[in-house]
Amino acid sequence: MSDKKVTELFGSMVFNEDVMRQRLSSQSYKAWKKCVTDGTPLELSTAHEIANAMKDWAIEKGATHYTHWFQPMTGVTAEKHDSFISPEDSSRVLMQFSGKELVRGEPDASSFPSGGLRATFEARGYTAWDPTAFAFIKDGSLCIPTIFCSYSGQALDKKTPLLRSMDELSRQAVRVLRLFGNTGVKKVISQVGPEQEYFLIDKDVFNKREDLILTGRTLFGAKPPKGQELEDHYFGTIKPRIAAYMRELDEELWKLGILAKTKHNEVAPAQHELAPIYSDANTACDHNQLTMEIMKKVAGRHNMVCLLHEKPFAGVNGSGKHNNWSLSTDTGMNLFRPGSTPSQNAQFLLFLSAFIKGVDEYQDILRCSVANPGNDHRLGAQEAPPAILSIFLGDELTAVMDSIIQGTEYVEHGKNNLSIGVDALPYIPQDTTDRNRTSPLAFTGNKFEFRSLGSSQSITGPNVALNTIMAEELQQFADILEKADDFNAALHDLIRDTLRDHQRIIFNGNGYEDAWVKEAEKRGLSNLSCTADALKTYLQPKHIELFSKHNVFTEEELAARNEIHLENYCEVIGIEARTMIDMVNRSLFPAVSEFSGTVASTIAAKKSVLSDLDCTMEEELLRKLHRLMAQMVKRSEDLGHALTNTGFADAYEAAHYYKYTIFAAMEELRKVVDELETITSAEYWPYPSYTDLLFSIK
Ligand code: ADP
Ligand code: MG
C-alpha cells in the first residue's frame, strides 16, 4: 500500500472533526466544539443537524443501520442495530435519523449485569451519546459511542465513570497549575497508550479443543518439548501468514482512526503485540475495545483464532496489557515531563509526589482494578509484575528523591547541585528510561507504565482508578498550597514530606524475586495474591470515600461493581471446572480406555504367538495407564462434587471457595491428565497437543 493510500484510508470510516467541519453549518460545528471543550450542552436542533449529517455521510459509505455502541459491565462492547428506514407511504421508505435518536437510546437492557442496580420493575436502562468520542462505521452500521445508565442515572457501564474521573482529575490538576501561575490551561487530559498482547493459533486446531472454545484457555496440556526456552520468538521475523494478518489488521484499525503503530512477536511462541500511539483516555479505551474486537474478526478471515485470554497456555508466558499513562494540558504540556526551568521542575516534582502518594495510599484499589480470573495466573508468576504494587523510578530520580528527603546536595555527574525551592531546583535527568521489566508501575521518562493489566480486560477500570487517585491527591495539595502564605516554602515542605512519608512504595529492584515479597511485607505493602483476596478490599470505607467524594462512583455503584466482579469470578472458574469434567467424561476417559485396550490386545497377541515372550514394558504401561485413569476419574468426581456446594454466607466466601477449593481441585485433575498425555499414543489422544497449538502457524 502506498503512503497516499494509508493517509487516505486513515479515519475514512470515522465521523471526525474534519468531516464535521465540512458537513455541519459553522454554527453547529462551533456548538459541538464548545460542547467538547467546555462541556456546554447541545441544543436538540444542533443534535438534529449532526444526526442528519452523520446519516448522510454513513449512507454514502454504504451504511444502512445505526447503533448506540456502549460498554456494559461485561467488559466487552454492546450494540443493537436499527436501520435508518422510515415509511414514507405504503410503498416507499425514507432514510432517517433524528437528533433524538442520536442523543438517547433505550436498549432492552435487562440482561446486562447491573449488580442489583436495576430493580426488575425498572429493568430499562438508557444510552446517551458521548459527543466527545467520534461516531464510526463498522460492518455497515453507524456506531455512536454512548454511555449506559439506569433511569435514575446510575452508571451501568465502563465509560461513565471514566468520563467522570477525567473531569474531576482535570478540575483538580488545573487548580494546581494555577498556583504555578499558569492561567492559560483550561483542561488537563489523561493520556493513555495501551500495548496489547495476543496469541494467534490456527482455527482448525482451535476447533478441536473444547476448553479453548468454551473458556479461551487450555485446561489440559502436557508441557511441549519446546516452549519459549530459546527466546527465539521475541522480536523474531514475522511469518508470512502472521504478517498478512497484521497488515490487514492495521488497515482495518486505521480506517477507524486507530493509531496502530508498533507490531512485533512476543516472548511465547504464537504470541504477538500491537501498540497504538497514545491518545486521550476516553478515545484510548474506545479504541482498545475496538482493537480487541477487530483482532478477533480479522483472525477469522485468515483461518486463525486470536486468543486474548491472560493465560491460554501453561508453561509459557501469558498476555497482558501495558497501560502507559500520563497527563497533558490542553496546551500540549506533559505534566510528567521533567522541565528545563526550575519552576517547571518544581511542578513536575509536585505531580510526581502526588502520584507516589496516591499509589502508596491506594495500592489495594489499583490491585483490584487488574483483578480477574485470567490475570490470577500471571501476576506474581515470574512472567508479569507481582501482585504487590510498587513504583519504579530509576536510580537517578530516586537519588533526586533521596536528596530532597534528606535535604542534602544532589550531585549529578559532579556538576548539578541540588537545593530545594522553586528558584533553585535540581537538574532532573530527562532520559530516565526504564529497563526494569518487573515493576508494576514504571516511570519511563514522561509517563507511567502500569504493567499489571490482563490482556482481555477493558482498560477503563485501571484508568478510572489512576485518574481518581490522582484527582484526590491533587485536591489535597491544592487545598494546602492555596492557603499557604509563602508558596515556595509550602511547596518545598509538601514535596519533601510527601516523598519522605511514601518512599516505601518505590522499588527499583527485581520484582520477580522472593526477596522482594519479604521486603515488601516488611515495608507494610499489600500483597493480594488473587482476585478473591483483592476484592475483599474493594468496599473498604476508604475506597467508598475516594470514589464518592469525586463523584466517580456512589457507594451503591461501587457495591454493584464488586458484586459483578465476584460473581463473574465464580462463574468463570465454574465453567472451567465443568468443561474439564466434560472433557474427561466424554473424550479423555474413552480415549485412554481405548488405548489401554490396544495395549492389552497387543500383549495378548504377542503372548498368543510366543507364550514365553517378556511383555513387562507393555504390562507396566498398562498398569500405569490404569492407575492414572483411576486417579483421573476420582479427581474429576471430587471436582464435580465440590461444584455442588452452594451454601455460602456471602459472595466473598463463594469467591474464596472457588479459588482455594475448586481451582485447587482443577489443578490436581490437570496434573494427572497431563501425565496421561505423555504416555498415551498421540493417535489416541483426543486433543491437539501444545506442540500442535503453539506451532500451528507454519
Ligand atoms: P515499550 O514496549 O518499550 O513499553 P512501546 O513503544 O511498545 O514501548 O509502547 C509505548 C506506548 O506508550 C505506546 O503506546 C506509546 O504511544 C505510549 N506513550 C508514549 N508516550 C506517552 C505518554 N506521554 N502518555 C501516554 N502514553 C504514551
Ligand atoms: Mg511496555
- CATH fold type of the largest domain: Creatine Kinase, Chain A, domain 2
The main pleated sheet reads as: 9 strands, mixed
Question: Could you tell me which ligands this complex binds, including any ions or cofactors?
Answer: adenosine-5'-diphosphate, magnesium ion
Give the distance, in angstroms, between the N- and C-terminal Cα atoms.
25 Å
Specify the structural class: alpha+beta
Strand tally = 18
Percent of residues in helices: 40-55%
- Arithmetic mean of pLDDT: 92
Task: Summarize the structure in words.
The chain is α+β, with helices and mostly antiparallel strands and 698 residues long. The chain folds into three domains: 3-157, Roll (Ubiquitin-like (UB roll)); 165-553, Glutamine synthetase/guanido kinase, catalytic domain (Creatine Kinase, Chain A, domain 2, 2-Layer Sandwich), CATH 3.30.590; 568-695, Up-down Bundle (Four Helix Bundle (Hemerythrin (Met), subunit A)), CATH 1.20.120. The protein is built from 22 helices and 18 strands. The chain has helices at 3-9, 17-23, 26-38, 44-60, 99-103, 159-179, 203-206, 210-215, 240-255, 281-301, 342-361, 363-369, 395-406, 460-483, 487-502, 514-523, 531-535, 541-549, 555-609, 616-643, 651-679, 690-694; strands at 14-15, 65-70, 78-83, 85-87, 93-95, 104-105, 125-129, 135-138, 141-150, 188-202, 260-265, 271-276, 279-280, 304-307, 320-329, 391-392, 441-443, 448-454. Strands 10, 11, 12, 13, 14, 15, 16, 17 and 18 form a nine-stranded mixed β-sheet that branches. Strands 1, 2, 3, 6, 7, 8 and 9 form a seven-stranded mixed β-sheet that branches. Strand 11 (260-265) and strand 12 form a beta hairpin. It binds adenosine-5'-diphosphate and magnesium ion. Adenosine-5'-diphosphate binds next to strand 10, strand 12 and strand 15.
